[in-house]
Amino acid sequence: MSLQRRRRLRTPLVVALLLGFLLSGCADDTEAGRLAMPEPASVQGERTLDLWQGAWIAALVTGVIVWGLIFYAVVKFRRRSDDEIPIQTRYNLPLEIFYTLAPVVMVIVFFNHTVKVQNDVLRDIPPDNIIEVTGQQWQWTFNYGLGEMDESADDDRYDDVYAYDEYAYEVGTGSYIPELWLPVDETTRFNLYSPDVIHNFGIPSFLMRMDVIPGRVNHYSITPSREGVFRGACYELCGVYHSRMLFEVHVVSREEYDAHVDELAEAGRTSEMPLLGSDEAYTQQGLGDLAEGEGPGRGQEGDDSE
Question: What is the pTM of this model?
Answer without folding.
Answer: 0.75
